[in-house]
């Protein structure tokens, strides 16, 4: 592949993400080929942006792909980038629970404005911003994660990092069962995030058109309890828009976190 071809491919990916914007709900996700590694020493993971989980549309690029497991944290540097998705192998050398993560990805700068129901990105609504809306600069920070188990799970991978937006399972991820409650705690910079909207998307929605399983919110302690109706693969999505740390590219940031999980039949 020649250098001009590489540049053209990268430009096409960037333009696809830019044109999609927040309004089109392109969301990042990680999807392993196995959620239970059995006795295998690795799983293979796809990483992409999509409007229909888990149907890859735009490749996800990250310098921070990593895995956190019972043997500590390790970066993942061997990533194959295709036009629609990225693929990498995540090691699972010993028994335990593993958190696979894209790491925080700094995205495009955009504009947003405040409304009675919260911050909105320009283009996020079907109608344009009100003429008197004060537009501010905002940069997107996205993180996509998923848990994989090998043998008996442990708790090391469930420990929050204390940085950015995180959805901490309060149940072993491999123990989620359709029709039963599963609780999570939403954190921002290590602190519980109360009354935050949480959306759950279902993989089956790609086939029957019912993309959303649930729309709910965290309670006063940042906890959200989910109950999915049928076995299958799901993805949570949470967004949090707030002032950016001092010295950031823009004065505001829009954080997005997604977590892929499966619900068993029980």
TrEMBL record:
Pfam families, per database record: DUF4198
InterPro entries on file:
DUF4198
What is the residue range of the signal peptide feature?
A: 1-25
Taxonomy, superkingdom? Bacteria
Query: Has keyword Signal?
Result: yes
Listed A to Z, the keywords are: Signal
Q: What is this protein called?
A: Nickel transporter
């Amino acid at each position: 592949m020649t250098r001009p071809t590489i540049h053209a491919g990268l430009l096409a990916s960037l333009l696809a993400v830019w044109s999609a914007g927040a309004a089109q709900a392109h969301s990042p996700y990680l999807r392993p080929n196995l959620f239970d590694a059995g006795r295998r020493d690795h799983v293979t993971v796809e990483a992409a942006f999509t409007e229909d989980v888990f149907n890859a549309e735009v490749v996800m690029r990250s310098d921070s792909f990593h895995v956190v497991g019972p043997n500590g944290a390790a970066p993942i540097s061997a990533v194959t980038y295709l036009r629609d998705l990225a693929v990498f192998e995540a090691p699972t050398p010993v028994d335990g629970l593993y958190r696979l993560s894209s790491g925080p990805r700094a995205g495009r700068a955009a504009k947003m404005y405040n409304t009675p129901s919260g911050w909105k990105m320009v283009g996020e609504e079907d109608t344009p911003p009100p003429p008197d809306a004060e537009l501010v600069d905002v940069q997107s920070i996205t993180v996509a994660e998923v848990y994989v188990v090998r043998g008996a799970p442990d708790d090391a991978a469930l420990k929050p990092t204390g940085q950015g937006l995180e959805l901490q399972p309060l149940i072993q991820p491999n123990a989620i069962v359709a029709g039963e409650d599963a609780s999570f705690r939403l954190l921002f910079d290590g602190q519980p995030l109360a009354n935050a909207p949480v959306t759950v998307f279902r993989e089956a929605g790609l086939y029957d058109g019912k993309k959303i399983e649930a729309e709910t919110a965290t309670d006063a302690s940042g906890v959200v309890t989910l109950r999915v109706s049928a076995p299958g693969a799901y993805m949570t999505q949470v967004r949090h828009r707030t002032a950016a740390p001092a010295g950031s590219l823009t004065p505001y940031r829009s954080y997005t976190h997604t977590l892929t999980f499966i619900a068993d039949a029980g």
